[in-house]
Amino acid sequence: MTVTARALNRASMVRQLLVEREPIGVADAVRRVVAVQAQHPASPYVALFNRVAGFDPHELDAAFGNGLVVKATLMRMTLHAVHCDEHPEFRAAIVPMMDGTRFQAAFAAGGLTSAEAQAVATELAAYASEPRSGAEFEAWLHERLGTGATELWWAMRAVAPLLHAPTGGPWSFGQRPAFVAAPSSPADPLRGLEVLTRRYLEGFGPATVADIAQFVKVQRGRVKTAIAALDLEELEGPDGQLLYDVPGGARPDEDLPVPPRLMAMWDSVLLAYDDRGRVVPPEYKTVITRTNGDLLPTLLVDGYVAGVWRPVEDGIEATAFKRLPAGVWKALKGEARELFAMLRERDPRVYRRYDHWWKHLPAGDTRVLPGQ
C-alpha cells in the first residue's frame, strides 16, 4: 500500500487530536499524543488547549501536582510532559545515550569517568528524595567532589533519574526549576525502546526508521532492532521509502478537513519527523526555527504551518506567510478568543521573551485577533 504525503499529514493530525478536540481528561490526552514538549512551562497548556474539548488548565495543574503527568528530560534530551506510567520505559530507551560522549567535558570537570559519573548520579537521586533546587544540587556536588560542580550539575540534570517538581506560578513550573527523584526505571533499554517505538507510531505514525530515530534521538540501528521485535505493518511512502505503522492505526482520507489551530512553541508534532515537511512546508522551516533552536508558536492551517503568533496587549497577533481565506481568519479569531481567555487568567504575554525573533520574520499578513 502506498501512502501519499497529504495522507501522512492527515494521519498525524488525527492521531495528535488536531482534527477534533477530544472530550477526555488531560492525563489521557497526554498518553494519546505520547509526549508533550515542555521546554517552556506554558507549552503543555497551550498544546492541550488545542487538543482537549473544554480544556481546564486547573486539571493539568492537578495532574502535575499529584504526579499523574510528569515533566522530565527525555526524548532528544529535551523536556517533555508524559504520563507517569510511561516515564520509566521512555527514560530507559534513552539511557544508552547518556554515556560519556555527550557529557564528557562535564564529567571531566568533576574529575569523573563515565562510570563514576553514573555512580554519582545514583547518589544524587537518593539525595533528591524530596524536591531540591539547582543551587542545592550544586552545593551537594561541590561538597561531594570539590570541583566542577556547576558543569557537572548541567549534565546530571539529564543523567540522573530526576523529575521536575512543580514550583507553582501560572504554569506549574517556574524559571528556577526544582527536581525530585523519579521512581526506579527498568534496567532494559531495549525493552524501553520497543515500548517507545510502538507508542511513537501510535501517536505519530506511519513513519520511517529515520523519523523514529529523530524523535527519540537514538541511532537508527537501535530503532531497527526495536522494530524487528514488534508486530508492525509495512507501507510505502510517497517517495518509495519504507514506512512502519501499528496495525489498525488511523489513516484517514487525505481530503479530511483540518481546522486552524494556534500551536504551542515547540509543539511535538512539529518536531516528530526527520522530514518536517509532513507538517512544516520547507520554505517556512528556517523561518519558524530560529538559529538557537527556538521553535516559534505557529499558525496551523489545513494541517500545515502557515505563519506564527504571539500574544499582545489586547489579543493574539497572527502573521500569515501566505494569503489565507476569510473563513480561515474567522476560525482563527475564534481560536484566539478562547486561547486569550486562558492566557489572560494566567500570563497574558506568555512567550514575551521570544519577541525579539519577530524582527527577523519575512513580510506577511499581520492581524491582531481580539481577545474578547
Residue share in helix: 40-55%
In the predicted model, the low-confidence regions spanning at least 5 consecutive residues are none
Q: Biggest sheet, open or closed, and with what strands and sense?
A: 5 strands, antiparallel
Could you state the order of secondary-structure elements as H and E? Answer: HHEHHEEHHHEHHEEHHHEEEHHEEEHE
Class by helix and strand content? alpha+beta
End-to-end C-alpha gap: 48 Å
- Mean pLDDT metric: 95
Number of helices: 15
How many domains, in number, for the residues?
2
Spatial strand sequence of the major β-sheet: 9-10-11-12-13
What is the number of strand segments? Answer: 13
Morphology call: globular
The value of Rg in angstroms is 21 Å
Strand content: 15-25%
Write a brief caption for the model.
By secondary structure, the chain is of the alpha+beta class.
